[in-house]
Amino acid sequence: MDLGEGLRQALAKLSHATIIDVKVIKEFNKELQKTLISNDVDVSLVLGLTNSIEQKALKSKPPAGVDPRDYITNIVYDELSSMMGGSYEPELKPKRILLMGLYGSGKTTTAAKLAKFYQDRGLSAAVICCDVSRPSAYEQLQTLAAQANVAFFGINGEKDPVKILEKAFQALSGKQVIICDTSGRNTLNEQLIEELKRINAKFNPDERILVLSADIGQVAGKLASEFDKNAKITGIVITKMDGSGKGGGALSASNAAKANVMFIGTGEKLSNLEPYDSHKFIGSLLGIPDIEKLLENIQNAVKEASIKPEEMDVTKLNFEAFYSQLQALNKMGPLKNVFGMLGVSDMPKDTIEKSEEKLKKYKVIISSMTKDERADERLLHQESRIRRIALGSGTLEKDVHELISDFNKMKKSFNLFKNDRNMKRFLSKFGS
Ligand code: GDP
Ligand code: MG
Q1: How far is the C-alpha of 363 from the C-alpha of 376, rounded, in Å?
Q2: What's the sign of the alpha-carbon dihedral 375, 378, 379, 381?
Q3: Rounded distance, CA 139 to CA 141, Å?
Q4: C-alpha distances out from residue 99 to 92, 112, 163, 179, Å
Q5: In terms of CB atoms within 10 Å, which of 29, 239, 357, 385 comes out highest?
Q6: How far is the C-alpha of 428 from the C-alpha of 298, rounded, in Å?
């Protein structure tokens, strides 16, 4: 059974459930465990995953209008994506990239694909052949580089990669993205480790990428942590996602090396490379191609639920919540319309404009806060933090103070929000 099929079945069972209780979750988790383990995800990792799914699922109820099945899917999605990282957005700036991996994992092909990827986006790119063990490595990369129309450097027959690198920098000077392809073996052995260490020291890469084939199997986690131990992995590329492997090993690998998935190889052609898209990847893992839409619906439902004042717990009110209220307010359209919806049509234009400006400023200020500060407003009693936030958001300290004072006002009046009139009153005070 492939990864997607098992999860699809487990999720299908959930749609018959009307409530989510321990029994339902345990049953779902058992199914999830079976599938993940049979698809090469590390056992302890699977147990950790299902544990936190259980905790999360039982801690809170699905918001009104959300199907339990969708709700659990959302939780599973969050857990998986926190393991593999969110979608990857490649930074378009000069960099050196080192590719590592076992023999046949797709390193050489990926080197040319990556060079093409960056060159297509306006950066001049080059590849270096530092695979000194495979006889035809030089010709293979040379041919691929020509196909990709990127620069190539190698020394045919040279057995010392450091000597190749010494000459490469000069030959490739001016190239913005330089990608180094290395030797692979059937396993990670002493000799390969030694070679990688020397290449690492000489090449001094910004990114050290482990290339893994989607069908790697149970060894993925162990392999990734060994590569990481010896060469500090910064990211993972999964190749051959177009084949039979479903990338289950990638989960273990990225968890073991604490490295996010960056790119996915989807075919032999040089254009078959995509930045990792968590919606797409996890969606196909779970067998829900339109997971993006589903998550959006859930998030909207959660938002709608959270805007109901009677469900608000005033003790939990922090800047994070304040921020999402501002966001929700924003979604409702220009403030003029919001006032209109609340039946306040006679608000002076000036006041509306001022409020709008203030809201915008507040959003910028809150984005400059650390996670801890957003969660606990008391941290902001320190002037040094206020200074830092003002500086970071390009506002004045007085603006930050004003936000805190408005926030505290909101906190006080929150309990009064139980009817619309008070809401109106609060909003109308906002611009004053
Ligand atoms: P290396 O030994 O790690 O350098 O691996 P290669 O780059 O030589 O690739 C090994 C084989 O896998 C070649 O036949 C490639 O064409 C093939 N390959 C690499 N990436 C992909 C991919 O994303 N999809 C498919 N279907 N084949 C791939
Ligand atoms: Mg190769």
Answers
A1: 17
A2: positive
A3: 6
A4: 18, 11, 18, 7
A5: 239
A6: 31
Cα-to-centroid distance, 119 and ligand 1 (Å): 21
**DSSP string of 155-177, one letter each residue:** -TT---HHHHHHHHHHHTTT-SE
Residue 209: φ, ψ to 5°: -105, 130
Q: Decide whether any atom of ligand 1 lies within 6 Å of the 267 Cβ.
A: yes
Indicate if ligand 1 lies below 6 Å from the C-beta of 213. Answer: no
Atom of ligand 1 nearest to the CA of 102: 3
Check: CB of residue 239 under 8 Å from CB of residue 214.
yes
Q: Using CA atoms, how far apart are residues 386 and 398, in angstroms rounded to an integer?
A: 9
Q: How far apart are the first and last CA of the chain?
A: 63
Specify the amino acid at residue 132. Answer: V
* Ligand 1 lined by 268 (C-beta under 6 Å): yes
User: pLDDT digit of tens for each residue in the chain (432 aa)?
Assistant: 455 566 677 777 776 777 778 888 888 888 888 877 877 788 888 899 999 999 988 887 777 777 777 888 888 888 888 888 889 999 999 999 999 999 999 999 999 999 999 999 999 999 999 999 998 999 999 999 999 999 999 999 999 999 999 999 999 999 999 999 999 988 888 999 999 999 999 999 999 999 999 888 878 889 999 999 999 999 999 999 888 776 778 888 988 899 999 999 999 999 999 999 988 888 776 666 677 777 777 677 666 655 544 444 555 667 777 777 666 665 555 555 555 545 455 566 777 777 778 778 888 898 889 888 888 888 888 899 999 999 988 999 999 998 888 777 766 655 554 444 445 455 555 544
Classify residue 124 by its DSSP letter: -
Does 101 contact ligand 1 (Cβ within 6 A)? yes
Please indicate whether residue 65, judged by its CB atom, sits closer than 6 Å to ligand 1: no
Give the number of the ligand closest to the Cα of residue 106: 1
- Counting from 1 in the atom list of ligand 1, the atom nearest the Cα of 272 is 23
Return the residue whose CA atom lies nearest to atom 16 of ligand 1: 268
Q: Does the CB atom of residue 73 touch ligand 1 within 6 A?
A: no
331-351 CB burial, b ≥16 within 10 A, e <16: eeeebbebbeebebeebeeeb
In the reported structure, the alpha carbon of residue 259 is separated from the centroid of ligand 2 by a whole-number distance in angstroms of 22
Evaluate: CB of 87 within 6 angstroms of ligand 1: no
Written as six digits, the tokens of 278 are 């968590």
**How far apart are the C-alpha atoms of 403 and 236, rounded to whole Å?**
42
